[in-house]
Amino acid sequence: MNRVLSMLQRPFVRRSLAAVSAVLVFTACQPQASTASSSGVAQAATPSDVAAARTPAVQGRMMLPDFASLVQQHGPAVVNISTKGKRVSLRGRGMAPDDPMFEFFRRFGLPGMPGAPGGQDPRGGPPSSQDNGEDGPSMRQPGGEGSGFIVAADGVVLTNAHVVKDADEITVKLTDRREFKAKLVGLDEATDVAVLRIEAKGLPSVRLGDPKKLRPGEWVFAIGSPFGFENSVTAGIVSSTGRGLGGQESRFVNFIQTDVAVNPGNSGGPLFNLDGEVVGINSQIYSRSGGYMGISFAIPIDLATDIQRQLVANGRVSRGRIGVAIGEVNSDIAEGFGLDRPRGALVNSVEPGGPAAKAGLREGDIILAANGRLIERSEELPAVIGLIRPGTEAPLEVWRDRTTKRLSVRIGELDPPAPMVADAGKSAAPANAADRLGLVVRELTAEERARRAADDAASAGMLLVERAQGAAGESGIQRGDLILGVNGKRTRSLKEFRDAVAQAGKVVALLVQRGDQQVFIPVRPG
Predict the structure, then answer these.
(1) Which terminus of the chain, N or C, has fewer Cβ atoms within 10 Å?
(2) Which residues are catalytic?
């Protein structure tokens, strides 16, 4: 016994016994570490046991978005849009020698060009004796492809304005490969939104979400036709919201910035959230190569649906204005004005007699909020004001003399551009245009009339040419011309002008004022 005790006192033996005891205790603490049958024979692990052990990994994977189910459910409401351009004459008339395509047509000897049958002088002189005296050969301008989505089961489709602008024919293709000729209901270039309609019923349509609830880092995905590959799906996250891009062409949109892959052909397609709701229209990319480089921009769907409503109801988009010129608030300006941090829009100048001036806004004020919307960056203000209906009283929060003041401004109306809408029973055409002439005209605004009335009382009610193409363009009518009359009769309104053109014969003689000169220009409608 003494010998056993002396062995237990040896360090090596004591360490060995301690290790064995620890193993026994650890094993005993593991529930069902080994299972045995009633006969005492150990059982092997079953497949279900192995699967149970891997369950946490499976659950971790299932927490990722199920894009496949979302696409299967909402993808059928996404459409492919293809367009055909208008036909243009190949004759030298209407194609200047410095036109990039002039040399191409001349080199290949296409009809209607110098040196070819039916050709003419590059300066637009009379055709050669080989000309048959008819309109001659023509070619169709290049069309394009884009995407869109159905917002109403009776055939209302939203897309980008640049996808369908100047198209002579628009085709909408569904995922089931059915194709429809589409009518352009209207488009708004300032926001790049267009509304189409196809003759169909019971179509799949998307659900619309609230882009104001989007947060940076949130999953989103796009469906469209990049490079013509229909129904392609790409996914990413929201990079930023309320992104102003600056520039006149984007000043009325605060974009959703994402890293979703968007390429040519995706334009006009929907941006979805994980609830399967459309929150934006994919519109632009930031690129130095012309292709996707990790940054894309979408038009918020609430803005797009507001544009849709106005185009359908009024044929044009009405925007608010307050009459100020604004600038950025950087850290130096914020410090100089005693503002806690850079935010808001600095008022550089106030239009005399404009809505802002009447409301008491001054140079040096910093607009911090408009109509309840906080203004973080100066480029956000035009979009916020533009969405307010003209004539509405809107609250402004401004920073002045190192304190916050509240003002109320009655929103004025921004001079509307010539809207593009479809005439009943016709293809895409300007609503306020004489289609026979190829003119887009509008009535002068009250302010424009007042300015002109001071110089010439007879000028009140004149019509301004916004665009001249087709027969009018070939006859010499130019953008900015003022139309005073038709075939010897003065026209003081858009209705009088339309009626006069409709009653005219084969030649429409327009009395045009250009600068301080007045001249009759005969136009032979096509």
Answers:
(1) N
(2) 162, 192, 267
